Amino acid sequence: MGSRSIARTEARREAAAEGQATQLTVAEQARLWARVGLLLLAVIGHVPMHYLWRLLRLPSPWPRWFLGNAAWIAGARVVKVGTPLKRDVFYTSNHLSWIDILALGGASGTAFVAKAEIGTAPVVGWLAGLNRTVYVKRENRLGVADQINQLRDALADNWAITIFPEGTTTDGQSLLPFKTPMLRVLEPPPPGVMVQPVMLDYGKVAEEIGWIGQETGLNNARRVLARKGSFALRVHFLEPFFPADFPGRKAIAAESRKRIEAALVAALGRELRPFRFAEEAIGYKVPAPAP
User: Fold this and answer.
1) To which H or E segment does residue 163 belong?
2) Mode of pairing for the β-strands spanning 194-201 and 231-237
């Protein structure tokens, strides 16, 4: 990629982070719609088979296969580094993009904890439900106990659950403090359950792919699906640990973050930098009143 092309990509990314809609070229629109078409074909090919497996009361691999194929269609070439635990595991991961869910789900078959709004989103909510997503209302502090019980029941039913403790997406160069409410499910930890930190490394395209600032989810999806070529996404499954060895959700969060930070620093080859959008929720900035 030439210097002029790099400068253009950076300018568009900055504009998107400020909430401006990205204007796509004809070639980019063609790539966008080609990938959307392939994603629709993947839905048509995978979902009926999932329901057939359910009808036959068989464990269905189809949601995992769909997520992995969807990540590939979106341009991600997922490489697993390390060994994911297959069951009785609570993954904690850094978070950059909606592609994280495709990559992690395809690589491990994990279910996810997601905002309740995702469950009501057209198509996306339906697909998330097929993968046993656990929905929570982060702003409903009075209902945290009920949500913890819901998550504990889900952990008992599912082999693996993933949370993104940062609570938002970043740029692959930063790591926010880990929020701890959803880790209450590990106070005390269910028998046999381990915590496995996961570090997602998008390499040189991390900042381009990252969903940050005031960019809407739709615009980020358009940008990513319209980009040329593919990109490597290394999913590092780090050394798991017994949560009982780090009693309390704050200690579990601190240990998870320490391991993810060390792996991210090693991948970047330098120290992390502060995240400049840490105080603003993605895509929800209220426009300033007109003068």
Assistant:
1) strand 160-163
2) antiparallel
Q: What is the C-alpha to C-alpha distance for residues 248 and 51, in angstroms, rounded to an integer?
A: 39
Which pairs with CB-CB distance under 8 Å and at least 24 residues apart come from 144-151? Answer: 144/181, 144/184, 147/181, 147/182, 148/181, 148/182, 148/184, 148/185, 151/113, 151/182, 151/185
Cα–Cα distance for residue pair 254/246, rounded to 1 Å: 9
Q: Per the structure block, which two tokens stand in for 131? A: 């993968």
* Digit-coded pLDDT (tens) for 187-242: 888 888 999 999 999 999 999 999 999 998 889 999 999 999 999 999 999 999 99
User: Residues 182, 130: contact at Cβ < 8 Å?
Assistant: no
Task: Find tokens 């400068």 and name the residue.
Answer: 7
Q: Which residues in the chain show pLDDT less than 70?
A: 1-2, 115-128, 137-148, 150, 154-155, 157-158, 278-291
What is the rounded CA–CA span in Å between residue 186 and residue 154? 13
Question: Are 129 and 115 spatial neighbours (Cβ–Cβ below 8 Å)?
Answer: no
Alpha helices (H) along the chain: 3-17, 26-55, 62-73, 99-108, 116-120, 124-130, 144-157, 206-209, 217-226, 249-268
Task: Tell me the residue type at 176.
Answer: L
Length of the chain counted residue by residue: 291
Residue 7's Cβ-side half-sphere holds a number of Cα atoms within 13 Å equal to 3
Strand partners, 6: none
